[in-house]
Amino acid sequence: MDSSQEAIKQLNDLMDQVDEHLKDTFEILHQGHPSETFVRFLKARDWSVSKAHKMLIDCLTWRLQNEIDNILSKPIIPIDLYKDVRDSQLVGLSGFSREGLPVFGIGVGMSTLDRASVHYYVQSHIQINEYRDRVVLPATSDLHGRYIGTCLKVLDMTGLKLSALSQIKLLTIISTVDDLNYPEKTDIYYIVNAPYIFSACWKVVKPLLQERTRKKIQVLHGCGRDELLKIMDYASLPHFCKREGSAKLSRHSSPDIDDCFSLDHPFHQELYNYVKQQSQNKALKIPIKLGSFHVDVPDPDPEGTMIVQTIESELHKIGDQNGVTHDDD
Q1: What does the pLDDT read at residue 291?
Q2: The organism sits in which domain of life (predicted)?
Q3: What CA–CA distance (Å, rounded) separates 59 from 296?
Q4: Are 262 and 105 in contact (CB under 8 A)?
Q5: Three-state SS at 103
Q6: Are both 3-65 and 72-277 of the same fold?
Q7: Mean pLDDT of all residues in the chain?
Q8: Domain boundaries along the sequence of the chain
Q9: Distances in Å between the alpha carbon of 324 and those of 68, 215, 329?
Q10: Of 106, 128, 261, 262, which has the most beta carbons under 10 Å away?
Q11: Is the CB of residue 260 less than 8 Å from the CB of residue 110?
Q12: What is the CATH number that goes with domain 72-277?
C-alpha cells in the first residue's frame, strides 16, 4: 500500500470513531465518495493525517452548527432581494469542459456586493457550492460514467478598481469558507481581462501563495478565449470570454440569456427553482421564517490574512501614486 493509500485508510479509521451526527453530515458532504473526499482534505493539509482529520471534523461541526445540510431549502426571499444579490455578486455556471468539469464564471471586477447584507452574500455563495456538489457534479459524473468532483473557475477582472478595497472583507469571508469547508474543489482558476491594478497586486501576492495554490492560477492573455477553447467548446465559454473587447461593454448594456450571471440564465433558473421546491417540501413540516440564514464564519488562516494585508497595502500604494482617495473608484 503506497503512502497516500495508507493516509486514506488512517483517516477512514479515525472517521469510523466519530459520532452518528458527524457521520450523517459527512454522507451529505461526500455524496457517496468518501475516499475522494478524504483525498481533498489530505491534500489541503499536505497529507498530514492528523491535520486533515482535524480539518474534516471542524468542517463537519461547522456544517451541523450552521445547518448547512438544509441550506438548499432556505430561499433568499423575496425574489427582488435575490435578484439584487445576483446583480451584485456575479457568478454563474457557463457550461462544462470537454472532460465534464463544470465551468464557473465569476465577475470579480464588476461585482459590487453592495445591494444586500453580508449574510445574504455568504448564504448565496454556500448555496451555489452545495448545489454544485450535490446536484451538478453528481449529474456530470453520471453523464461521463466516472467520478467528477471538481470544477474550473474563470475570473473576469474587468472593471477592477481601487474601490475593491471595500469588498476585501467580504471576499475574505467567502474565501475562508471555501478554504476550510470546500477544499480542493477547484482545479484551475483562469484570470482574464486583467487590468494593471490586478497585475500589480499579483506580482506581490504570487510569492506568498503556497506552491499548490500558485500552480492552480493561470493568468490568460486578454479575454482568454483562445486558451479556453483548447479545453471547452465555444458554447461553454463564459459570456465575457466570447469576444475580445466584449469586456468593455457595460454589464447592463443588453440583458442576455447567455450572460451566466443573470437570474434569467438556465443555471440560475434551475438553482432558484430547486431551492424553492426544497423549501416547499420542508414547509410541510415547519413554517419558513423570513430573513437571512446566518452562517458563522471561521477565522481565516494566517496565510490568508497576510495575503489580504499585502493586497490592501499594494492597492493603497497604487492609489497614492495616482493621487486617488481610497473611498473613490
Answers
A1: 55
A2: Eukaryota
A3: 12
A4: no
A5: strand
A6: no
A7: 88
A8: 3-65, 72-277
A9: 42, 33, 8
A10: 261
A11: no
A12: 3.40.525.10
Confidence class for position 328, pLDDT limits 50, 70, 90:
very low
Under DSSP, the state recorded for 136 is I
Is there a contact between 185 and 218 (Cβ–Cβ < 8 Å)? no
Could you tell me the CA-to-CA distances from 126 to 65, 69, 150, 181, 279 in Å, in that order? 14, 11, 16, 10, 16
For 41-91, give the DSSP string.
Answer: HHHHTTT-HHHHHHHHHHHHHHHHHTTGGGGGG---SSHHHHHHHHHHS-E
φ, ψ at 183 (rounded to 5°): -70, 150
- Alpha-carbon distance of 42 to 256, in angstroms, equals 41
Bridge partners of residue 219, in order along the sequence: 191
User: Which helix (DSSP H) or strand (DSSP E) does residue 303 occupy?
Assistant: helix 302-321
CATH annotation of 3-65: 1.10.8.20
Rounded to two decimals, the pTM is 0.89
Residue in the structure block whose three cell numbers are 465569476: 106
- Residue bearing cell 506568498: 208
| The pLDDT of residue 66 is above 60 | yes
- Give the number of other CB atoms < 10 A from CB of residue 154: 27
End-to-end CA distance of the chain: 57
| 217-219 β-sheet, strand order | 91-96, 102-107, 151-156, 186-192, 217-219
User: Residue 299 corresponds to which cell in the numbers above?
Assistant: 477565522
Whether residue 1 has pLDDT greater than 90: no
Residue 193: all three cell numbers together: 481581462
Strand partners, 186: 151
Residue 103 contacts residue 241 (beta carbons within 8 Å): no
